[in-house]
Amino acid sequence: MTAKTRATPRLLPKVATGVRGFDEISRGGLPRNRTSLVMGGPGTGKTLFALQTLGNAARKGKEPGMFVAFEEDTREIFANGATFGWDLPALAKSALFFLDARLSPTVVQSGDFELSGMLAILEAKKRELGAAWIVFDGIDVLLALLQNPGAERREIYRLRDWLARTDLTAIITAKVDGDAATPANYGFMQFMADCVIRFDRRLEQGIAVRRLEITKYRGSDFSPGEFPLSFGLQGVEVAAPGSAETLARAPTERVTSGFGGLDSMLGGGVFRGTTTLITGAPGTSKTTLAGKFAESACRRGERTLFVSFDEGGERIRRNLTSVGIHLDGYLRSGLLRMYCGRTDATNPEEHLIRIAALLLEYQPSCIVIDPLSALAKSGALSSARAIGNRLIYQVRDHSITAFITSLVEGADPQAEATEMQISTIADTWIHLSYLVRGGERNRALTIVKSRGTRHSNQVRELVLSAAGPALTDVYSSGGEVLMGTLRWEKEAEERARKHQRHAEFTAKRRELKFAEADITARMAALQVDLDRARAELARCSGDDEARQKSSGEWKKELRRMRSSDSAAAAAAVSGKRRGARISAKSRKNNGEQVPRHGS
Amino acid sequence: MARKRTKARAAGAPITTVVVMRLYIAGAAPNSVRAIANLEVICRRYLKGCYKLEIVDVCEHPQRALADGVLVTPSLAKVSPAPVSNVIGNLSDTDSVLAALGLPAGAIE
């Protein structure tokens, strides 16, 4: 049973260093009661790392420790700590012991020596203090005095045995210059240590870049690879990449982008916690858009961080005021915080670490970074890209809604915007450009992409005024969106044309009205004629009848008056009529048959 | 006293001023044992009894060693006469020990 429990591998007990980022990549810190070796060239931060760990252990973990310095005297160490706000002299009174182990330059060496004496002293001190930690800082200085690889190895062994016996959690720092000068004994030291951390400092295009790598961690998992290291406000900080998986949270809440025009183009604003990238040439009012976003965030009462590079906060505030964006009040009330970094003074890594510290301390819900591309100005592009990515991921991990601007020089946005390679990470990409037409430059805004949003595909003109930025109504002509005075001209032209059309229409209508009236009038006149004609006709037929009647009567009267053979006359008249009818009928059969009566 | 020393030197005699020394050792560590042996030879040859030697075992008196600023062993400190000096190592290099003690190298052979 006991054998069984022994066989199962136990997790290596670890103790947190309190160095931001290091505990993450080492999955918990340094191995407890074991030895860690910190190697690196001069000025890489080895001593600070060790000192910080020791200080944190004493302060937070209430674990006393000893610091054995072979390179610097105690006063210098205290001064170094003071620059990061560590009160080492206070700690030295109770929990820390500093041993100045430098050998006086006047010391004469004669023959071989050992570390036994020092170890005896330290052991006594450990008992007195109850120390759990020990740091040997710059052990290489002492070992170099031995001038004998065999003796060096012997002392390293001695040290290892002593450390194993005393159960101290140890950090040994050793200076290693470059790659070539890694003596065999350092390999040996690596063997004796359970955890080996390599510090490195190199120049990338004139900017010093510090990195840290865990090269070995016996019995433990760790993040492989180099991690940027920098001196933050509270000490050494390691840029840990954070969790390997991106957070799955995807809020559907919309946040205004600052003004209605853009919101409606974006289908109601941007999603909370997303990243919006604004690219554009110089002067396309990227900062204005970002400032508008910051203002609207503050108006909602959300804490906002405004990060600007190469431009002072005061100037940004003033410039934004000219376009109706007022940040003063929010700056005073502390709702808005500004971080203004100079990219020529510090390397991008340090900015990132300071911003990360601000994110933790200030906990903003909105952030503006203006412009991110400034990071690429100094140092290598590849590292600037990596920093840009890490910054965005950090912001996203905190679920902060971000507006990030990026300067694009030159004409082609598609090729240039990917210079920092952040366009793929951004959720929304707004591109600002100048359209030069008709002898003027106008700002045009396009939404290149917006994830999960139905967005406008139109190029819109961005107009800046004292009332703030605004997007004009779409005015397209011949397949192009018109801008500036061209738009104005077109609009005026269109108005004139409309006016003219209206006038033409009115004239036509009037004309037609006249025609209608004319025809109606003519129709009335004709009706009168018609009536007259009808009346005439009626009168004529009436006359005729009357005349016939009267003539019949007249004849009858006449006959009567004559008293002649009216009957014969009457018969003659009727026979004449009958004969005429028959003749018409029989003419085709027999023309001869027609009797001629009466002629 | 000064006169005495001058006289002694003029006569070419060994220094008669008492040299006070302290040797810090770490128990029975090989270099410590060797240092004691080497120092005894030097004292016999060059100091002719005009010395006071105290041997401090750091393992037994760590506080004392700490107060005296001793780190590595073996370590020899010349306490007087002035100037004080320190030698580390097993004292196998006699010339450098003599130089540190202010004795002319190879004064007496």
Helical content of chain A stands at: 40-55%
Number of helices of chain A: 18
| Class by SSE composition of chain A | alpha/beta
Count of beta strands of chain B: 4
The total number of structural domains of chain B is 1
Q: Major sheet of chain A: order of its strands?
A: 5-4-7-8-3-9-10-11-12
Please mark out the parts of chain A with pLDDT under 50 across 5 or more consecutive residues, or reply none: 1-9, 584-588, 590-594
Residue share in β-strands of chain B: 15-25%
What's the order of the H and E elements of chain B? HEHEHEEH
Gap from first CA to last CA of chain A: 168 Å
Task: Provide a descriptive summary of the structure in words.
Chain A is of the alpha/beta class and 599 residues long. Helices cover 43% and strands 22% of the residues of chain A. In chain A, the strands form five sheets. Chain A has a nine-stranded mixed β-sheet with strand order 5-4-7-8-3-9-10-11-12, sandwiched between helices. A nine-stranded mixed β-sheet of chain A has the order 17-16-18-19-15-20-21-22-23, with helices on both faces. In chain A, β9 (195-204) and β10 form a beta hairpin. In chain A, α8 (149-166) runs parallel beside α9 and α14 (348-362) runs parallel beside α15. The longest helix of chain A has 79 residues, at 484-562. The model of chain A is unreliable at 1-9, 584-588 and 590-594 (pLDDT under 50). Chain B is of the alpha+beta class. Chain B has a single domain, classed as Glutaredoxin (3-Layer(aba) Sandwich). Chain B contains four helices and four strands, in the order αβαβαββα. Chain B has helices spanning 2-10, 30-47, 62-68, 94-101; strands spanning 19-25, 51-57, 75-80, 85-88. The radius of gyration of chain B is 14 Å and the shape is globular. The relative contact order of chain B is 0.21. Mean pLDDT of chain B is 78; it is low at 1-13.
